[in-house]
Amino acid sequence: MTRSKFKVTPFDRTGKLTTTLYLFTGMWWAVLLFLFAPRDYLVSPEGITIRALVTSYVIPKCKIKRVEIVEDVKPGVGLTWLAGFCGYAGLFAMADGSTAKVYATRLDRMVRILTTGGGPYLLSPAEPEAFVEEVNRVILAQPELREG
């Protein structure tokens, strides 16, 4: 069974600023949000697992249609969970009026995962090209196209 782990990118400027502000003001609940922020992604034949310190979110293989790199994401507002503090997690309204499930630490050079029966996911692996290649190889590969 092939499993590949990918790290998330470092925080962007907004993430650093809001994290610093929250920590500086001493908001005790900030620790709770930190526990649920995305830490890494696991690509396996079962799907993509988004891992946080205390929980995991799974995008099952059967729901993944396509993965692609997106250069310029225009976020709107976070509708659920956290935005900017320790990353971005949950449902977000995007500037173009759509929604996306975001599990990321930055909002540039993201990977968009298009799914069946639901909105897209936006992730921020540190190596987006390698992540997309691995998803295509492990999850989306057509058995009849493989050699061997």
Q: What does the secondary structure layout of this molecule look like, with pairings?
A:
Layout: E1 4-7, H1 13-25, H2 30-36, E2 38-44, E3 47-52, E4 56-60, E5 64-72, E6 75-78, E7 82-83, E8 88-94, E9 99-104, E10 108-115, E11 121-123, H3 128-138
Parallel strand pairs: 9-11
Antiparallel strand pairs: 1-2, 2-3, 3-4, 5-10, 6-8, 7-8, 8-9, 10-11
Distance between the termini: 16 Å
- What proportion of the residues form beta strands (DSSP E)? 35-45%
Order of helices and strands: EHHEEEEEEEEEEH
CATH-defined topology? PH-domain like
Number of domains: 1
Sheet with the most strands, sense and barrel status: 7 strands, mixed
Q: What's the helix count?
A: 3
**Strand tally, please?**
11
**CATH class division:** Mainly Beta
Helix content: 10-25%
Low-confidence blocks of residues:
144-148
* Helix/strand structural class: alpha+beta
Return the CATH architecture. Answer: Roll
Radius of gyration using CA atoms only: 16 Å
Oligomer: single chain
Transmembrane segments: 21-37, 81-104
Organism: Desulfofundulus australicus DSM 11792
Protein name: PH domain-containing protein
Keywords: Membrane, Transmembrane, Transmembrane helix
